[in-house]
């Protein structure tokens, strides 16, 4: 056995490539989407249960918290979609090299930031 192997890896000190961060964020955005869809379905169910609950949800829709929840779920959807399109393009054989992966990851981040910022302007 090689005794020079690290015993305990500190993920915070490892210098990961941008492709790793994009992949990790893609997974996190998927988890946020699952939780966000559950919240949005709960809001939909509450809005359809009675006129009073519909009016309460309508009144709360302008609150900062509600706008933040909608923005977070839609931001996760935007990022997850853009990263998913990158994966589909890579499945076609485009950008499969390390350099192509890095370029694709930078494009995913740039496009996502722009679209999420535009979404924020539309919501607020």
Please give a handful of descriptors for the protein shown.
124 residues; mainly alpha; 4 helices; 0% strand; SuccDH_FuR_B_TM-su; heme; transmembrane; transmembrane helix; iron
Helix content: over 70%
Number of helices: 4
Rg, please? Answer: 20 Å
Secondary-structure element order, as H and E?
HHHH
Structural class of the secondary elements? mainly alpha
Find the count of extended strands (DSSP E, 2+ residues): 0
Beta-strand content bin? under 5%
Distance between the termini: 58 Å
Average pLDDT score: 92
Inertia-based shape: elongated
Main β-sheet description? none
Low-confidence stretches: none
Task: Characterize the structure shown.
By secondary structure, the protein is mainly α. It is built from four helices and no strands. The protein has helices at residues 18-49, 51-60, 64-91, 98-123. α1 (18-49) packs across α3 (64-91) and α3 (64-91) packs antiparallel against α4 (98-123). The radius of gyration is 20 Å and the shape is elongated. The chain starts with 17 loop residues before the first helix and ends with a helix. The model has no long low-confidence stretch (mean pLDDT 92).
Topology (elements, then pairings):
Layout: H1 18-49, H2 51-60, H3 64-91, H4 98-123
Summarize the structure.
This protein has four helices and no strands. It is mainly alpha-helical and 124 residues long. Helix 1 (18-49) runs antiparallel to helix 2 (51-60).
């Amino acid at each position: 056995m090689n005794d020079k192997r690290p015993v305990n890896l500190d993920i915070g000190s490892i210098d990961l490539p941008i492709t790793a961060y994009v992949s990790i964020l893609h997974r996190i955005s998927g988890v946020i989407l699952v939780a966000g869809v559950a919240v949005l379905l709960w809001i939909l169910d509450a809005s359809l249960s009675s006129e009073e609950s519909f009016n309460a949800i309508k009144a709360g829709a302008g609150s900062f918290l509600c706008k933040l929840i909608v923005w977070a779920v839609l931001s996760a959807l935007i990022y997850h979609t853009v990263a998913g399109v990158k994966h589909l393009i890579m499945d076609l054989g485009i950008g499969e090299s390390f350099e192509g992966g890095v370029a694709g990851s930078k494009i995913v981040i740039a496009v996502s930031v722009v679209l999420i910022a535009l979404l924020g302007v539309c919501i607020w």
